[in-house]
């Protein structure tokens, strides 16, 4: 059961001041107030597709043009978006505390753009701006591709967002069919000439980068983790969902959840004695907690 101070900002500040090793696990809710939709719940639909159904190797195999249009649109939106005060607060904590490590499931490049030191950031699910070859036998990749549009066939994804908020991006207007894009119109790998280029993100069923995982588990195992921040994630996707509990295994660890739904009774009931929970927009709550 939680302590009566589970949502006290001053009690949290006291805990933070005593914390040396700090881990953060972030998700799409952190970028929500930058205008980027989350995966589940409201906003999790792209046209009539579940965003999570497009984020699979099977979907890419079935219709690479459709999946590419989804990613080209998200690249365009992420390039238009700006990091918010939550990203900046985490980046500032990292500069202040070399023992702070941030793990983010977000692929939108907003942590790096907020100036988060790269050595204190692991992008668990890759990046929209990394491109790799989809052939399993080819390891070509381009770590930084910001082309927008990505290629001529995907230009509809990069049309300007409408100026008024009640207008819809032309690509999201489901009364107009999506253009079918054949694989021949998508960029192929410059190394093998064979595989299609694909976004350098981690789809369901694909493994996270092994060296990165080793480095994360090694960091956690090195010494007790004092504090874990779980920010804007539904914690449904593994292995990201498990890092907070792995961190607890080293001794007494406080887990602080920052999420719109953090203070719902069923979530509060799950807190351990030294845990915290703060309901609200991560872009508003994090700066208050980390100031
Ligand atoms: C706000 C807010 C605001 C809103 N402020 N908060 C063990 C058990 C069961 C299954 C598995 C397991 N181990 C592995 C699996 C399989 C699978 C998995 O986890 N499945 C589950 C769904 C059950 N995992 C994998 O396949 C992973 N690979 C792997 O483990 O390989 C080895 C292996 C394979 C198979 C079996 C066993 C082992 C890979 C996972 C890759 C996930 N990829 C995606 C797409 C990335 C590319 C892209 O961006 O398109 O990653 S799916 C999608 O979900 C995306 C996200 O990063 C990820 C997490 O979502 P997130 O960030 O939590 O977003 P939401 O929308 O879910 O939640 C938003 C939250 O924010 C909500 O809580 C809101 O309340 C909140 N919020 N506004 C604060 N303003
Ligand atoms: Zn290739």
TrEMBL record:
Q: Which residues participate in Zn(2+) binding?
A: 133, 138, 189, 192
Q: Which domain of life is it from?
A: Eukaryota
In the UniProt entry, which residues are flagged as the active site?
Answer: 125 (proton acceptor)
- Which residue ranges does the record assign to the Deacetylase sirtuin-type domain? 2-291
Annotated InterPro entries:
DHS-like_NAD/FAD-binding_dom, NAD-dep_sirtuin_deacylases, Sirtuin, Sirtuin_cat_small_dom_sf, Sirtuin_class_III, Ssirtuin_cat_dom
Q: Which Pfam families match?
A: SIR2
Give a GO cellular-component term: nucleus
Citing just one GO molecular function, the answer is: NAD+ binding
Keyword annotations of the record: Metal-binding, NAD, Transferase, Zinc
Instruction: Please state which protein family the record places this protein in.
Output: Belongs to the sirtuin family. Class I subfamily.
Q: What is this protein called?
A: NAD-dependent protein deacylase
> What is the originating organism of this protein?
Achaetomium macrosporum
Q: What is the lineage of its organism?
A: Eukaryota, Fungi, Dikarya, Ascomycota, Pezizomycotina
């Amino acid at each position: 059961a939680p302590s009566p101070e589970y949502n006290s900002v001053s009690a949290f500040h006291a805990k933070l001041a005593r914390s040396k090793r700090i881990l953060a696990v972030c998700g799409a809710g952190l970028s929500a107030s930058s205008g980027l939709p989350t995966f589940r719940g409201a906003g999790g639909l792209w046209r009539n597709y579940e965003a999570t159904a497009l984020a699979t190797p099977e979907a890419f195999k079935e219709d690479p043009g459709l999946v590419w249009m989804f990613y080209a649109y998200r690249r365009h939106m992420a390039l238009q978006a700006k990091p918010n005060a939550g990203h900046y607060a985490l980046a500032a904590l990292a500069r202040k505390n070399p023992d702070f490590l941030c793990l983010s499931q977000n692929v939108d490049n907003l942590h790096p753009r907020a100036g988060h030191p790269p050595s204190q950031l692991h992008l668990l699910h890759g990046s929209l701006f990394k491109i790799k070859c989809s052939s399993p036998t080819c390891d070509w990749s381009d770590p930084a591709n910001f082309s927008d549009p990505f290629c001529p066939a995907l230009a509809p994804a990069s049309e300007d967002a409408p100026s008024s908020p009640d207008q819809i991006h032309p690509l999201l207007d489901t009364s107009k069919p999506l253009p079918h894009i054949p694989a021949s119109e998508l960029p192929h790998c410059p190394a093998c000439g064979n595989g299609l280029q694909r976004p350098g993100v981690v789809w369901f069923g694909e493994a996270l980068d092994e060296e990165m995982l080793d480095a994360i588990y090694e960091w956690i195992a090195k010494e007790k983790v004092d504090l874990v921040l779980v920010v804007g994630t539904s914690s449904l996707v593994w292995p990201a969902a498990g890092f907070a509990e792995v961190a607890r295994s080293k001794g007494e660890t406080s887990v602080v959840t920052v999420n719109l739904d953090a203070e719902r009774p069923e979530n509060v009931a799950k807190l351990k004695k030294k845990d915290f929970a703060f309901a609200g927009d991560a872009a508003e709550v994090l700066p208050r907690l980390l100031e």
